[in-house]
Write a structure and sequence with these properties.
Length: 469
């Protein structure tokens, strides 16, 4: 067969001479033959050596182009196969390697990278690819639509910055609409979207919008679209994706434990069914879900209107200075730092010898006795019940008899016997602000976290939980 030639697969960039790498220009200079689509020859003609040949295989004839390259290389020629962008990304690279295998050819193949269209588009848009990214082609000529749709969903769920190739053609008009629909199921409508038509060429157009406002009709087959991730933003007409998540919010005074809690709250917010509830409801709800990892709290956390606001107002004006819990576990979950900062005391009578004596004498539960003692000493406290339904019934009874008037009630007893009934009973105390975990769910940890939500309500606006950790 004589002297073996070689095939150099070269990406010539997105379409301007400045974006062709020196390595590719060097390859063009030494080539005997350049195989490609004629539109691209204009960018490299001036570098072709005397006697070098440019062979146009026409558009959409990639297979013939690859076969021709092998035939010429087998004659001992140095052949450069040119592809726009990077030849390895939706380009001629894979085809040449596949053909080498099918022809059982041992021709030397060299692959030279080029600047891809998504990189050129990204540089024109600012810095949209500052973090993990993926590229999806909407062309279903070689990939079934089900596979493309699965990849779109994965990109949206995974919070990848996503570049979209082949968004549209004359026959393919609905796919981009579907992509936007899928992304909006996972991402905010405010997510930045930048798109560039004919990147790097004279007809270049650059546009920036948001996922919600994006109009697929404004796009053609020569457009590259880049969709930002949840951290991307638009500033001074550019799309920027930070290199980290929430970096800009890390303050020197935020300890690691608080940072973890803040990140957890953001995650919860992104996964909630109804995150758009008022702040006074949202803040305790986030605490409840964070403590239980139970999104069912969205359904079962019941509150009087503005309860959190009203109770925090009593903390601020000094009328709420005492908290009574039914069990020590609930008391221990209330943040010590918050209590000290606000000058609030907690009380629990469960281990008080008087409660045991009273329970024995009256034939009532220890929890009931605790509430009777509390009513005598702190009738206007915030009452926090995380365990015993009998404590809750006792509170209702004492309020109705005029023996106590709590600042508020957190009702979260847990279990199977009389639990639901005790919560129905406490709901009737119309004049008292209440937060109730409806149904069988509850617990001391839940009661305590709802209490913490009240004590830190001033952090709700900035979504900064965990100040007193």
């Amino acid at each position: 067969m004589g002297n073996m030639g070689k095939i150099i697969v070269a990406g010539i960039g997105p379409g301007s001479k400045e974006d062709i790498t020196p390595a590719v220009l060097e390859a063009v200079r030494e080539a005997d033959v350049i195989v490609g689509y004629k539109y691209y020859f204009q960018f490299i003609e001036s570098y072709v050596k005397p006697g070098g040949e440019c062979i146009d295989t026409g558009m959409k004839r990639e297979r013939e182009r690859a076969e021709q390259a092998f035939e010429l290389a087998e004659q001992g020629k140095t052949v450069v196969v040119i592809s726009s962008g990077d030849a390895g990304i939706y380009g001629m690279g894979p085809l040449i390697y596949e053909m080498a295998k099918s022809r059982d050819s041992h021709i030397e193949i060299i692959s030279l990278p080029g600047i891809s269209a998504f990189q050129k588009a990204a540089s024109l848009l600012g810095a949209p690819i500052g973090h993990d990214m993926c590229i999806i082609s909407l062309s279903d000529l070689m990939t079934p639509w089900e596979v493309i749709e699965r990849r779109i969903k994965a990109a949206a769920v995974g919070d990848f910055v996503t570049a979209v190739y082949n968004p549209k053609s004359h026959g393919r008009y609905w796919q981009l609409y579907r992509l936007i629909e899928l992304f909006l199921q996972e991402r905010s409508a405010e997510t930045p979207v930048g798109y560039v038509r004919q990147a790097g060429r004279e007809e270049q157009e650059i546009k920036i919008t948001t996922l919600g406002a994006f109009d697929p009709e404004d796009v053609d087959m020569f457009t590259i679209i880049i969709i930002g991730n949840s951290q991307s933003y638009i500033a001074d007409g550019k799309v920027i994706t930070p290199r980290g998540y929430y970096r800009e919010e890390k303050d020197a005074d935020i300890k690691p434990g608080q940072q973890i809690m803040m990140n957890s709250f953001r995650t919860i917010l992104s996964e909630m069914q109804h995150p758009d509830v008022p702040k006074w409801r949202l803040w305790p709800l986030l605490h409840a879900i964070h403590t239980t990892v139970d999104f069912g709290m969205e359904e079962c956390l019941w509150m009087d209107d503005h309860a959190t606001e009203i109770l925090y107002g009593k903390v601020v004006d000094g009328s709420l200075q005492h908290i009574v819990t039914d069990v020590t576990m609930a008391a221990s979950g209330i943040r010590k730092g918050a209590l000290e900062r606000l000058g609030i005391q907690t009380h629990c009578y469960i281990n008080d010898p008087r409660s045991k004596q009273m329970a024995d004498e009256k034939g009532i539960t220890r929890s009931q006795a605790c509430m009777q003692l509390a009513a005598e000493e702190y009738p206007e406290a915030l009452y926090v019940v995380g365990n015993a339904p009998t404590a809750l019934f006792e509170i209702c009874d004492l309020v109705r008899k005029g023996k106590m008037s709590p600042a508020g009630i957190i009702a979260a007893p847990v279990g199977f016997v009389h639990v639901c009934e005790s919560k129905h009973a406490v709901k009737t105390l119309k004049q008292i602000s209440k937060i109730i975990v409806e149904g069988r769910k509850g617990g001391s940890n839940l009661a305590a976290t709802l209490c913490n939500a009240i004590l830190t309500y001033d952090d709700a606006e900035q979504l900064k939980p965990g100040r007193d950790l």
